[in-house]
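Troubleshooting: if your tokenizer reports a length mismatch, compare your output against this known-good record of 219 residues.
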Amino acid sequence: MRSGMGGWVENSDIKLPPVKGLTITKVDDMFTCFMCHHNDYHAKVQGAMVMVQAVICLKTLTIPQAKWYQTYSRLSVKLEEYMERTFAIIKPDAVERKLAGKILDRIEAKGFNIVGMKKIKLTKEQAEGFYYVHNERPFFNDLCTFMSRSPVIVLCLEKENAIADWRTLMGATNPANAEPGTIRKDFAINIEENSSHGSDAPETAAFEIPYFFSALELV
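Known-good structure output:
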């Protein structure tokens, strides 16, 4: 299925917005069910529809071994062989304390290639869309308020084993449990204001990267 310059791209009973020059090879009804059965309207608009963009942009993401990679159980995109990419955020507490430069130094010292970076100020609605998977958790409102209170730096990072290596460099979610020398151990204030975020799996990165970056912004 190939998108064109106008109209909608159709596959079975679902319709996807057109994205010029990118090809999706298979989309089935499980993804339709995912998009259409969220009870929360904001999750639909800010979450599920961004996942459509993630699917369309997956060819620009990097999954090693050039295999058929399964996203959201039964959605498949034929990928080429690249180094792995992950998504990262330098959170408000770190930006406010002018720690972004130190964190970026550590990222590059560990061999990550920064293929996308920008400083942005999230609205609360944008934070809610990004963290929609936690929308029924008791910390959801506080998390979104924190993430939207002041600017953050969002990044797309690339290297072999990028997802696991970035999470190792960040350290445990609770800085009290983090290893010495990790970002959270050295810079985080507490478990709520822990200075950094990172994708925890390839399918998470496939959602998070295109939430903030277009394909043309990744170089």
